[in-house]
């Protein structure tokens, strides 16, 4: 097994991830590239109130209605029209519940402003029930909101750091009802690949077969069916089998792909990217335009008037560029060396990859983000 990584210093802020890996690629654990379909997380959500804000809340009808409903539960009756506090904000609360989490466990929750609040900084979420898609309440959330942001404004200026209308409450929810995850020892397990690929699926099934013969086969590019061996078909033995299954080593395959982010100038290329025989030449054309204003003023006591005239100077400079010939089936390391010789910038490199694809020389999928 051998690996080689080439970093292009001419990229500046861009990053070109290149690798020239031999056939003996790195093996990874099955748990890192796949999950058990029967084991999944669940989403919860709720609608609540954040109080204690420093005049940055909603003050709208929805906040007044929710506040009025809460006060009624506390046996306090007050007209909704009298509840116009700017220290209250209506928020949505979301959380993910991992599989097998027991009652009493704590969850992190995300709190997001629903109304016109300008900041949740310093606020406290009142006790809010969190329900699932089935309408059943599974958790209750409460606690101080951490935003990691602030907003300050005056009459003519405003300063904002990060996003003050969204915050988190670490451990802010308590699971009150356990969400049951059904894994039956007598039924087959289904492994779902994070990145579906036929080659990887077949390799994973073969690797499992090497440890547990006759137990696995690939049903599709993203699904592997695993039959639980007879000694593990009990509730007590099944966890040990799943733990052993997740430790099986697999060599994943990856498609030939080049991903380009034009906004940041980032380029990432996979190990299987190849170039057909091609000649590459790239040059830069720089045009500089300079405006100069000159003032013409008549002499003393003359009948003329002062005039301002503008003159424009245009200079064009084209950088010299060499012609680099790439041999057939060039590797990524050879491509990196060629682009270094040409001295290209990140934006130039993006244009080169797009031109290579149009010329049919780039033997890979080009994705522009």
Q: Largest sheet, if any?
A: 6 strands, antiparallel, barrel
User: What separation lies between the terminal Cα atoms?
Assistant: 33 Å
Number of domains: 3
SSE class: alpha+beta
Q: Low-confidence runs (pLDDT<50, min 5 residues)? A: 1-24
Helix content: 10-25%
Strand order of the largest sheet: 4-5-6-11-8-7
How much strand content do the residues show? 35-45%
Discrete helix count: 6
Give the CA-based shape: flat
> What Rg is obtained from the alpha carbons, in whole angstroms?
32 Å
Features:
single chain; 369 residues; six-stranded antiparallel beta barrel; four-stranded mixed β-sheet; 24 strands; flat
Topology at a glance:
Elements: E1 16-17, E2 28-29, H1 30-33, E3 34-36, E4 42-51, H2 61-73, E5 88-97, E6 106-113, E7 124-131, E8 137-144, E9 150-153, E10 158-161, E11 166-175, E12 189-193, H3 198-211, E13 216-218, E14 223-226, H4 238-246, E15 249-250, E16 257-261, E17 266-269, E18 274-275, E19 278-281, E20 285-296, E21 307-318, E22 323-326, H5 332-342, H6 346-358, E23 362-363, E24 365-368
Parallel strand pairs: 1-17, 16-24
Antiparallel strand pairs: 2-15, 3-12, 4-5, 4-7, 5-6, 6-11, 7-8, 8-11, 9-10, 12-14, 13-14, 16-17, 18-23, 19-22, 20-21
Compact description:
The chain has 369 residues and is an alpha+beta fold. 17% of the residues lie in helices and 36% in strands.
Molecular structure report:
With 369 residues, this protein is α+β, with helices and mostly antiparallel strands. The protein has three domains: 27-39 and 182-250; 42-175, no CATH class; 257-289 and 317-368, no CATH class. Helix content is 17%, strand content 36%. The protein contains six helices and 24 strands. It has a six-stranded antiparallel β-barrel. β9 (150-153) and β10 form a beta hairpin. It is flat. The two termini are 33 Å apart.
